[in-house]
């Protein structure tokens, strides 16, 4: 292994074009593919290969096989029946083959003139008119046969395969590929990186292609190992940074935990075992000097809000302030309503209160709230991200709770920094109803502790989920009537048409009118959509909560976290267009009270009379299980880990090569190596992370 160079070479981006010239179309396309630095090109691996290394005799080819031959053109003509096409016959001495081209250029016709000797590559079909190839690739003879398989890269419009191939080849040649693993660290028969990359871009023709395609080849193993190591290193670094930070120590008994105890006593229910356990975990964290960084995951309806309220009470008991943020105003308002109900009566006697902060607030109210936050009178501040806006200064912030954390970006989490004071960080409690499978959580959030509410409050009846084809809508309306007769309420979620909010709105409005007509005058049918002014949204929500409206038709603004226990039926129209976790979240709006609840997934086949494969898998999962963890597992299966975490928005680096389910051994290896490497070879570690994550490494620190 080469010794570490004195001044480590760092990766530089490809130089920007001279001013005034602007990037060329090719450069723009490369950039779109994320190909900026030499190393990016080197790590841009083929999706498949073509074997252009060998020539075969036509007589030896078999039906359905890819073959490359060299032969002489004996016939070449354009025919017009059944449609315009170029038909060429070639003969290689062993046999003949017919080549057919439907779209062709005059230059191709010229290249394939009678008597020309050509190299042809394509799939051989042995029909009964003899051998045929449709649209084969044609090359001039005479160029030497390549020694390696030819890589085929995934590309986009405006970037032709040969151009991309050339760019990758030269990027690979320029890239600095010195060893970054510490001496003796490689295992599993790992190859070194340079050899692995050269091989994967240009594999020897005798390799078993299957080992390349299933990524089990040692060259692949090396890449996956490196990638996982980079991830572990950067997370470990992040964890160490956090460990060096200080947070306010929230002693359990600095005033006897009075508010906490009072709140427990005032709740109309007893905590579940899971809530108690998680509450204790949080209490322990808050009493430490290291900032808490905990993810509270629990299925919809598992009762995360109470846990947050109790944590807030601990914080207030210690004489500090707590902030609670939700991604949308409706959700924040629901939290606020609940927390005010629970806490305000208890806070009033202490001269404290719960404050409300949101972007749409009137200035006067906002100023008043901000002042209460600054004076410390607002012991708990609930709102949207307005809570962490620059203008809001806390007197003694110690705990920040983020609901539906996956919908907040890194920037927002970073904005919390410094809100607690100069040298201290707030404790952080993130909540999510999208359970993350353990392996994923461990590898993406190595510096995050995870608490799980794995128990629903008692007395819930399971939700029955039914798939119903759209042409049976009338039966669904009957179902709604039956629920209304029992005094229950109903949600109707309208289809998701991403391109056009206007169309969404029209659909929703029509549906509302239809339902209002079908259900009769005495039934209140409300409408909720994203274009409505906040105040109006709020008042519709209030009317629904108070049962002044019995049916709520909404576009997808209907919020995760909305809590109306009397609602017992959820209808989701065009359910095939929704993501699995979204369906699960929506379904979680019902089944919150004691009444038996149901969820109807209306689906409409597309023009072909079918529902796509992934959509079918999602609907099937919904019908088969209501366990959030099982749903998450299936979602992961259907979508893959990258999308699952919404990583694109949050900026978390995706694993491009490694796969957490199948590469558990490599993950173990990386997890074991990371701490030692960071301690004993910090420069190698830094270069390794830079090589793999580049600027993305920053995100992991948030
Ligand atoms: P989520 O985890 O989805 O945010 P919520 O916190 O909104 O769930 O709780 C769902 C409902 O269950 C709320 O009405 C809440 O008051 C109620 N709840 C929470 N904990 C309990 C409990 N231990 N016993 C009974 N009801 C509970
Ligand atoms: Mg919630």
Describe what you observe in this structure.
The protein has 702 residues and is of the alpha/beta class. Among the domains are: 60-140, OB fold (Dihydrolipoamide Acetyltransferase, E2P) (Beta Barrel); 259-453, Rossmann fold, CATH 3.40.50; 463-625, Rossmann fold, CATH 3.40.50. It has 25 helices and 22 strands. The strands form four sheets. A seven-stranded mixed sheet has the order 6-7-4-3-2-5-8, with no helix packed on it. It has a seven-stranded parallel sheet with strand order 12-13-11-14-15-10-16, sandwiched between helices. A six-stranded parallel sheet has the order 17-22-21-18-20-19, sandwiched between helices. Helix 18 links the parallel strand 21 and strand 22 (597-603). The protein is globular. Residues 1-17, 642-653 and 697-702 have low confidence and may be disordered. The site of adenosine-5'-diphosphate has 18 residues, from helix 10. InterPro entries: ATP-dep_DNA_helicase_RecG, DEAD/DEAH_box_helicase_dom, Helicase_ATP-bd, Helicase_C-like, NA-bd_OB-fold, P-loop_NTPase, RecG/Mfd, RecG_dom3_C. It catalyses: ATP + H2O = ADP + phosphate + H(+); Couples ATP hydrolysis with the unwinding of duplex DNA by translocating in the 3'-5' direction. Its EC number is 5.6.2.4. Keywords: ATP-binding, DNA damage, DNA recombination, DNA repair, DNA-binding, Helicase, Hydrolase, Isomerase, Nucleotide-binding.
Task: Write a compact overview of the structure shown.
The chain has 702 residues and is α/β, with parallel strands linked by helices. It has 25 helices and 22 strands.
């Amino acid at each position: 292994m080469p010794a570490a160079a004195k001044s480590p070479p760092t990766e530089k981006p490809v130089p920007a074009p001279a001013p005034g010239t602007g990037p060329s179309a090719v450069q723009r396309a490369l950039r779109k593919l994320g190909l900026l630095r030499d190393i990016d090109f080197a790590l841009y691996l083929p999706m498949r290969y073509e074997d252009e290394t060998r020539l075969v005799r036509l007589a030896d080819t078999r039906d359905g096989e890819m073959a490359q031959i060299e032969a002489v053109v004996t016939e070449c003509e354009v025919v017009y029946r059944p449609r315009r096409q170029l038909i060429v016959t070639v003969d290689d001495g062993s046999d003949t083959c017919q080549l057919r081209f439907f779209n062709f250029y005059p230059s191709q016709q010229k290249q394939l003139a009678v008597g020309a000797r050509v190299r042809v590559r394509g799939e051989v079909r042995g029909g009964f008119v003899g051998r045929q190839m449709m649209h084969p690739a044609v090359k001039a003879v005479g160029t030497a046969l390549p020694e390696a398989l030819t890589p085929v890269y995934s590309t986009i419009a405006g970037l032709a395969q040969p151009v991309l191939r050339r760019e990758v080849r030269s990027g690979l040649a320029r890239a600095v590929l010195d060893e970054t693993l510490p001496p003796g660290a490689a295992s599993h028969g790992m190859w070194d990186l340079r050899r692995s990359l050269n091989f994967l871009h240009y594999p020897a023709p005798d390799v078993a292609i299957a080992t390349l395609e299933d990524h089990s080849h040692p060259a692949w193993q090396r890449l996956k190992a490196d990638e996982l190591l980079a991830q572990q290193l950067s997370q470990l670094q992040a964890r160490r940074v956090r460990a060096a930070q200080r947070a306010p120590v929230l002693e359990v008994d600095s005033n006897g935990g009075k508010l906490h105890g009072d709140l427990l006593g005032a709740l109309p229910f007893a905590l579940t075992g899971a809530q108690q356990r998680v509450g204790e975990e949080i209490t322990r964290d808050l009493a430490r000097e290291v900032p808490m960084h905990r993810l509270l995951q629990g299925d919809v309806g598992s009762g995360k809000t109470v846990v947050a309220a109790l944590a807030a009470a601990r914080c207030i008991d210690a004489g500090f302030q707590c902030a609670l943020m939700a991604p949308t105003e409706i959700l924040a308002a629901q939290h606020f309503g609940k927390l005010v109900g629970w806490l305000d009566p208890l806070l009033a006697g202490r001269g404290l209160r719960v404050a409300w902060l949101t972007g749409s607030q009137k200035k006067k109210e906002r100023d008043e709230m901000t002042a209460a936050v600054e004076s410390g009178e607002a012991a708990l501040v609930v709102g949207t991200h307005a809570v962490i806006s620059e203008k809001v200064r806390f007197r003694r912030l110690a705990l920040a709770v983020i609901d539906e954390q996956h919908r907040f970006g890194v920037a927002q989490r970073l904005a919390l920094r410094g809100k607690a004071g100069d040298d201290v960080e707030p404790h952080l409690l993130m909540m999510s109803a999208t359970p993350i499978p353990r392996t994923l959580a461990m590898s993406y959030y190595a510096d995050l502790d995870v608490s799980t509410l794995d128990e629903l409050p008692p007395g819930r009846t399971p939700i029955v989920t039914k798939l119903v084809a759209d042409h049976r809508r009338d039966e669904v309306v009957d179902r709604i009537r039956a629920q209304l007769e029992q005094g229950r309420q109903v949600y109707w979620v309208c289809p998701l048409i991403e391109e056009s909010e206007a169309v969404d709105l029209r659909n929703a409005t029509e549906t509302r009118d239809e339902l209002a007509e079908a259900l009769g005058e005495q039934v209140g049918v409300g409408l909720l959509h994203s274009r409505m002014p906040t105040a109006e949204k709020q008042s519709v929500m209030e009317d629904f909560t108070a049962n002044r409206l019995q049916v709520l038709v909404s576009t997808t603004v209907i919020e995760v976290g909305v809590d109306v226990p009397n609602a017992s039926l959820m209808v989701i129209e065009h359910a095939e267009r929704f993501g699995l976790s979204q369906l699960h979240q929506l379904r979680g709006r019902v089944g919150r009270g004691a009444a038996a609840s149901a969820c109807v997934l209306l689906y409409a086949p597309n023009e072909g009379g079918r529902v796509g494969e992934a959509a079918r898998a999602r609907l099937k999962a919904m019908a088969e299980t209501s366990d959030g963890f099982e749903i998450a597992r299936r979602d992961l299966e259907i979508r893959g880990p990258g999308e699952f975490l919404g990583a694109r928005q949050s900026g978390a680096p995706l694993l491009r090569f490694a796969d957490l389910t199948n590469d558990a051994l490599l993950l173990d290896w990386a997890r074991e190596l990371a701490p030692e490497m960071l301690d004993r070879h910090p420069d190698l570690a830094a270069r390794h992370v830079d090589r793999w994550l580049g600027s993305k490494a920053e995100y992991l620190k948030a």
